[in-house]
Design a protein that fits this description.
It contains 6 helices and 7 strands, in the order H-E-E-E-E-E-H-H-E-E-H-H-H. By secondary structure, it is α+β, with helices and mostly antiparallel strands. The protein has one domain. The longest helix is centred in the last third of the chain and has 16 residues. The mean pLDDT is 94. The chain binds zinc ion.
């Protein structure tokens, strides 16, 4: 257990940190070390040789309805946080439902499918996640409360800032 915690801390420090804040490898919400999930991108059950591979291990949020927990042991082709920059393929979109994640328009069929699978398998448009983004919009764009760098990942913050203009 202690080793697992150390490993999480190491990965968060090296790979998943913005200013002083750790973020989930999939949904980008800020997370605290104690409430996280050690995520094997390629599931341990099917890829024994990847179990200890550094590029296969991430830290995700501990939300049971999204991200690492929701993905479980699904063996599938989705965007890989160690190889793909999610922001190259996915973007935010504001609608009546809230702020959702969608695939970018300029992608070919193959990547369009990968993006759709990524959103579905990680459940990136789960109700609370959509509401979380929308609440930040209401707070910082509509009510004009200054942006809080301790609260929002820069990709989402940039999107919200564009809505301000
Ligand atoms: Zn997450």
């Amino acid at each position: 257990m202690k080793i697992k915690q150390k490993l999480k801390e190491y990965i968060l420090e090296k790979e998943q940190k913005f200013i002083k804040h750790y973020f989930c490898c999939y949904c980008n919400r800020f997370i605290s070390l104690i409430n996280t999930h050690l995520e094997h991108f390629l599931p341990r059950d099917f890829f024994k040789n990847q179990q200890f591979s550094y590029s296969n291990i991430f830290v995700s949020c501990n939300d049971k309805k999204t991200c690492g927990h929701f993905k479980e042991n699904k063996e599938t082709s989705i965007l890989n946080p160690s190889k793909d920059i999610f922001a190259d393929y996915l973007e935010y979109k504001i609608s009546d439902n809230g702020i959702e994640i969608v695939s970018k328009n300029n992608l070919g069929l193959k990547y369009k499918k990968i993006c759709e699978d990524t959103i579905k398998i990680l459940n990136l448009n789960e109700r609370r996640l959509v509401n979380y983004r929308m609440n930040l919009y209401i707070q910082h764009v509509r009510k004009k409360v200054p942006f809080d760098y301790a609260e929002i990942h820069p990709i989402l913050m940039n999107f919200l800032k564009k809505l301000q203009e």
